[in-house]
What we know:
Elements: E1 24-25, H1 26-46, H2 48-66, E2 69-72, E3 76-82, E4 85-90, E5 94-97, E6 107-110, E7 114-117, E8 121-124, E9 130-141, H3 144-149, H4 154-170, H5 189-204, E10 209-221, H6 223-262, H7 270-285
Antiparallel strand pairs: 1-5, 2-5, 3-4, 3-6, 7-9, 8-9, 9-10
Helix pairs in contact: 1-2, 4-5, 6-7
Amino acid sequence: MSDASFAPVFRPSEPSAERPARTAPGLPVAAGLLVALAGAVLLFVFAGAVGAVIGVVVALATVLGAAGLIVVAPNQAAVLILLGRYTGTVDRAGFHWVNPLTFPSRQELSLRVRNFQTDILKVNDAGGSPIDIAVVVVWRVTDTARAIFDVDDFERFVVVQSEAAVRHLASLYPYDDFEEGLPSLRGNVEEVNGSLHEELQARLDVAGLEILEARLTHLAYAPEIAEAMLRRQQASAIVAARRTIVAGAVGLVDMALRQMGEQNIVELDEERKAAMVSNLMVVLVGDHGASPVVNAGSLYQ
Length: 301
């Protein structure tokens, strides 16, 4: 892997920090508001002009108070903003009452686990070969304040940073390990996935996001070089197979010569041994079956 280090993306000088908002139980507040609204109606109807004015004021206050009632579903959160200031996050599931003046700028977001799969990207690997690559990223929001205030559209931020991380990752590894001992995209999948996970987490920390998993889902040479690289892989496989065959053939020839000498089957001078070795290697290593020649005379004819 290249020694090139990844520098994290821009980080705000004063990053936002999530904090809990002040809330009240929603059910008692809702009951009180209903009682207040009923009282306002009675004042408006039966208390004359002054009572009607008071009833209208109470009704308006009741409507304003009702704007503070919110329902938070499991794994959901509500970010409260009052006059441009962040006042806290409500992430407990249930029926709550919060400051009703936060109603115009209140934002809701999901804390559920999400996944995103990049398009198939054409990039250059460490050796400069064009490859097609795609990854899947599993993530979730862990800091609602950072997600809302420190980046613009955190979902789009995940998409862009994931593609940037994939391009950077591909430039650090070759597609295949043609040189022994070097990590590659195809041969060291777990290491590559681990590097991708670390880089994505570093990139997305600024947005208060947690990467649960990052994994390659597609990896292939680009179409314009796929045929040439396939021939290279086939040649490498043939060389490796030949190496194994030759090593095995040498062992068999050595074993045959030793056993003939130990069991006194036949005595061969160096020239005849060389001829036998040559014949055995042709038989054992050749691609096609050998055509035997029967010697009907003496051994040395």
